[in-house]
Amino acid sequence: MKTKTIVTFILIFFLTKISAQTRIQPETIKAIDKLSPLSQGAVSMKGFLGQKIDSCVKNGVMAKDYNLYISAFKDRPDDSGGFRGEFWGKWFTSAALAYQYQPCKKHKEIIDLAVDGLIKTQDKDGRLSSYKNNFGDWDIWGRKYALLGLVAYYDQTGDKRALISATQALDDLISIAGPGKRKLTETGLSLLEALSSSSILEPIVLIYQRTGDQKYLDFAKYLVSLWSVPNKYTEKGMRLVEDAIAGVDPIKISAPKGYEQMSCFEGLCELYRATGEKRYLDALVTYGQKVREKEIMIVGSGSSGELWCDGAVRQTELMEQPMETCVTVTWMKFCYQLLRLTGDPVWADEMEVTLYNSLLGAMTDNGNWWAYFSPLAGERIPSPMQVPPCHSSCCVANGPRGLLTAPCWSVMNGKEGPVVNLYTSGTWKYKLSNGKEVELIQKTDYPKTDHIEISIRQKKPAYFTISLRIPEWSKRTKIQVNNDSVSNSDAGYAKITREWKDGDKIILSLDMRGRVITSPGNYNQMAIMRGPIVLALDNRMVKEENINLWLLHNDVKWKHNNDWNINYVLLEPTSGKKKDIYIDLKPSDLKPDDVWMAFEVPFLYRPTHFSNHKKTALVMCDYASAGNQYSSNNLFRVWLPQPMFMNDIFPKQSWFLLYEGKERPEMPSHTNLSK
Hints:
By secondary structure, the chain is of the alpha+beta class.
């Protein structure tokens, strides 16, 4: 009886924490998250990452004219409106995250007006769509994003007008797509096999969780049941759950459209919470692991032409339209869901790499525009798409959603105490189970350096656990608490349980040695990572010249010939290489001002078979800074062929692989690259 009471208390405690943020009805949750975000306004991030978030919010999210996004729902000029109905919801969910992070009066006024404007477009029967008629190609997809925005507003403000509007819109959808009506799996683009329409599962379950109305859960279950049966788009059915559980490669599951496919699994995350049905969790975790293994490239994203493409193996190729920003964002959001559901820090490891590389690499320096695609070699181009009248693109509207999740998973609520997932300067306010507040203050310039300080501020001593994420790559980790060493520092969560007092300090040092990464698909292609940062050559710091170079990593052995008095290096077979290969990196100031970090990297020059072998160095920078001039004159490269022929190391005129146009697209006239 005592054990049952304790378990009940824990469940109530966690549901209370969840409900305080998302206004969920406790009875609608059968599977409790292992980790949950802190409350509104509890996070303040500083330093490099904080500046990027501030720029994104000020110059991007809160500077947009949301009326242009509302116009798709207001005017509905015809039924060829395409996917512009998604823009309001994408932008608004970003704005809601911005308000959660910075709940100020100005931000509140913006989201109030944006919701009011959308609700005014709603028909009397509840219909909320950017199409005149039902079931246009992107009709349900746009409705999904409108519902997500309304739910996000209700979560942040508690204003029931938004929830009522969402329920009315969902009731209208059920009236035309419920059992016995038009199947949602036979709507949307046939070539996508209804992935876009099926992804509306997510807001359906979210609305159930907030209302407790059984008809919404029934509709969600009905939609998922349709995934398993044949339809006019596919003879075998979508089979998302079955194929995921079976470990089918993502490229072979339904249609391989990465963004929409992951969006369906985001909805399945919510259905698992609502039902506790274990096979859903099995499908989610196995699917996530498969995406990670088969599709995610070194900088933390995937896709070619927006489709899954066996990207992990093919990433050394010059790919057409690689790493759509919408895929990058959705991969981060899906990893965030898996982190919440499982408490497994591997998903935080994934998000950190994505955050610092592919995501920030896609954002312009001032935060007001985003790339559509992000290559690993060649040049960057801005998103050329400007859908009228929004003058935006899917990726420009979507990019901030990925960045603004970072405060949510940086430090989280755990059963035993705060869980630190992201190391960056800032302040986090955490409430213990007894209601007492603890403040965690981080001081660090990680990942530039390895040194992280976390100070504890609280009025009275308290006994709890602080969990520190130790990334998988950190093989030499040091942890101290008030100058006392902590022994447990393996990859995973290092849990420090003690009575914490005001002024206590944790000193964490992560292993920031340079690591040589061998491509999964080509042993003669290598790359360099330092912590979570991928390094790249940039032609502003590396010139083309008529020499060939090899990476001079720490496993390379110099040989000495006494007879000839020469030093030389013999190459070793590519097979049988050690798993962990390190390389000495030296911080460099020989970089442009708009490059975040740069390092001298040792290379080997071996022009002949035995003689004249020499050590030289090239300066490499972080991937997010590489090519950030968005110019055909600013070229970069991540994967380094062995040997590197430096007279032609940077692919030129690669913009046509990123955009199928006759002329190279330029930054839209209403934006600029200045800070």
